[in-house]
Structures are given as C-alpha cells and as structure tokens.
Amino acid sequence: MTSDFWSMGGYARYVWPCYGIAGAVLAWNLWAAGRYLGAAKVRAARALAMASSEAR
Amino acid sequence: MWTWFYKLASPPYVYGVAAAFVPWLLGFAALAIGYGLIAGLGIAPADYQQGEAFRMIYVHVPGALLSLTVYTVMAVASGIALIWRIKVGHAVAAAAAPIGASFAILALITGSLWGKPMWGTYWAWDPRLTSELILLFLYVGVMSLRSAFEDPLRGDRAAALLAVVGVVNVPIVHFSVVWWNSLHQGATIVKLAAPSMPGSMLWPLLSMWLGFMLFFGAVLCMRLQAEVLNRERQASWVREAIK
Amino acid sequence: MTVGAWDAFFLVVHRELCLSFRRPEQLFQPLVFFLIVTTLFPLGLSLQLSALRDIAPGVLWVAALLASLLSLDSLFKSDADDGTLEQLALSGQGLTLIVVAKTCSHWLVTGLALVVVSPIVGTALGIPTHAFATMMLSLALGTLTLSWLGAIGAGLTIGLRRGNVLLSLIVLPLATPLLIFGAAATDRAISGTSTAGAIYFLAALCVFTCTLAPWAATAALRITLE
After folding, report:
1. Is B158 on the interface with C (CB under 8 A)?
2. Where are the domains positioned within chain C?
3. Residue A34 is part of which domain span?
4. ipTM here
5. Which chains reach chain C with 3 or more Cβ–Cβ distances below 8 angstroms?
6. Which of B20, B48, B49, C138 is most buried, with most CB under 10 Å away?
C-alpha cells in the first residue's frame, strides 16, 4: 500500500514536487517574515538608542 | 460599535494585537493543513479521470485562491490608507505583498506541474494562466514601486494607488474560465451553487484552504509588526514593545 | 480675469502641441523606434512575407506598445523638472482637467502618429491592404487607452531613478488585454472573419479607461507633487 502511495498512480514525479514546492513556499514565508521582524526590532532598538544618546 | 475599527488605526494597538495573534493562527493553521494533508493524500479516493494526479489540487487551489485573496486584502488596505490617510493600511499592504506574490508563484508552478500530465504541456497561454501571471507581475510592480521612492510615505502612497488600480485583474482571473473558452476547468467551490465535488474530496480541500488562510494571517501579523516598527521607529511606545 | 474650464483645456492643449512641435525630433524618435523594432522581427526570423503575415498583428502591436512606452516619458517629466507642474496644480483649474488636456495632446502627437505610420509598418510585415482599416482603428483605440494607462504610470514614477523601467513594469501588465484584443482584431481582419467582437471589446476597454483613468492619474500626480 505504501509503495502505491509513494508512486501516486505513476504521477509521483508531478505530485511530490508539487507538495515540495508548497512546503518550500510556506517555509520561506515563515523564515523570511521571522528574519524581517528580527531585523526591524534591531533597527528600532538602534534608532531608540541613538535618539536617547542625542537627547543627553 | 466601531471602536474596534478606530483602535486598529493605532500602530501600537495593531502591533500588540498582531503579536498576540501569531501563535494562535499558526497553531490552527497547522491543524487545518495537517488534517487536509492526511485526508487529501490518504483518505480521499482517486479521481475517475485524473487518477492520483488530482491530489495536486490540495496545494494548487488554496495557493491560487490565496493569491487572489491576498491581493484583495492589499488593495482594500491600500484604499483605506489612501482615502482616510490611515498609515496602518500602508503597513498591511506592504506586509501582504510578498506573501501574495509567493502564493501566485506557488499557484503557477503547481499548476504547471499539474498541466503536464493532464493537458500535455507545462504552459498554455490561456486566459486563466495568463491573468494569474499578470497578477504576479502586478505584485512585483507594487513591491518595486514602493521600494523605488526615497521618501517611504510617498512610496507607500504610490504603491497603494497601483494596488488599487490593479485590483481590476482579480475578477478577471476568477471569471476568466467563465468569460472565455479556457483549458482550465471551471469554478468548483467559489461560485453561487453547490460545490461540484464529492464530500470526501471536498473537505480536505476546504481544510487546506482554511489552513492556508490562517497561515497567511499568521505571516501577515509577523510582517505587519515589522512594517509598523519600520514606520514608527521614533515613537515612544516602541521602547516597551520591543523589550 | 477668470479662465473658464474649456478655455483652460484648450490653452493647455495648445501649449503642449506648441512645445511638442518646437522639438520635432522628439516626435519622430518613437516613430522611428516603431519602425526599427518592426524591422528586427523579420530580420531575426528571416521569414517570407506570406509567413510573416501570421505573426504580423502581434509584432505590430508589441512594437506599438513599446514605442508608446518610450514616448510616455515626455508626458509629465519636463514639466515636473522645471516646476511648471506645480504651477499648473496650484493654478485653481482642476488638476484633472489639466491631466486630461495633457494626455489628449500627448495622444495626438504620439498615438495618432503611430496610427498614421502603421500602414507603412503593415506593408513591411505583409499585412494585406484590406486589413488596414481595422488595424488603424484598433491601434487608435489601443494607443488612446495606453496613453491613459501610461498617464497613471507616469504620474507615479516622475523623478524616480530608473523610472522608465518601473513605468514599463507598471504599465505593461495592465496593457496586456489591449495587446490580446488588438492583435486579435487585426488577425481576424487579415483572415477575413468578423472583427466586431474584438473591436467592441477594445472600444469598451478604451471607454472604461478614459472614464476612470483621469481620476487615478490625478491622484498619482498629487502623490508625487506633495
């Protein structure tokens, strides 16, 4: 039964790359958003630090 | 009654709400996508005409629907930002654009992989495929326009106008299979009638669609936090928020 | 002395036309580009005229699109550079009226010029003379729509570095229906089948764009001028 599953009725070389691309797109979205948010927080902290040091 | 709407115009409120929503949205998305995958790959029976290849529907259709939904979200947020000058709208639009573009790419690639065994070709210049490709170009155009301006607010407003102008393509993509003779099959779920698909195949599809929507919501919230921070760096509330 | 709306319209059109004809070489450049691009296709494909006829509508329309895009630069840029655009915006006449006047005069010297030159290009590509009427009508409608789409794009990209590339990136996706139906109309005219559907659709697109684009282009200019 599992070999039937993996071969997807002969369409394996279309179906599995499809799901692979979908997984990659979802993963990229999460990773890129996380990175973007982290960078934004770093920039905001730096801007605040500069502003408070200038205020002195 | 509309106070929740007015509150959403406030950047610190939106930042807090988005941050709180992310784990819930991700959790429910995982559940919906998990069920969709298990039921779609394992439980749903093979299609009479397409065999096992029809299972590509479980990533292709949600991706395509999302690419359209996200553009609409982007256009509505842009419209709100342009008309009422609510800057949070620009943040939402900026956050949504790359997500929508990635879903459009997903729809095009999975559609191409599905087209090869079913239609014998990886690509055809048929109305549905062409208009989806134009949707991708519009996403790229909006993102490029936003980043081309040195003044971020001007970039936001220019990109917002383009997003609103381009929303005319969304109904074109959806109705292309109705208005023209298209290789692509007609609407099975987003239409004013009963779905033309049996339950065992339909439920995993709806679950995947829901899961993708929740996932989009989660990623949107993450990017929205970043966009709000980028636009409000000097504000005093930021100090507490990023601790 | 207050100037009425029609007077203002014709004043701006007159100004634009005077300025355009003062530098005639600027008018000829897009036309020459049109001719050159059309020449590239037969040279690259080295086809006989009879075979060229099949691809002629598409080639003609792509070349017309690209030539129109080239000429869009002149719509707002020089006025934005020397401050005239701000003066026009502050003039008390509606900015929309001025945008309509500028775009109409722009179409007169660019789009209409393309239509006039198109029989030459058509002959070079092997389009039979009986198809010329449809070809010119479809080009007239198409270039007018394109001038308006270009006005929106030009309004958004004035003064940007590499604004030209961005302008093309914005306008071309929106112009694809034009290309599809314009080429279809010319194609049907060549093969002798009814062109009514395609021409009606082109006309509908033109009316739709001419109705809504002025507001979008004005909004775009206000964003840029702020």
Report:
1. yes
2. 5-225
3. 30-56
4. 0.89
5. B
6. C138
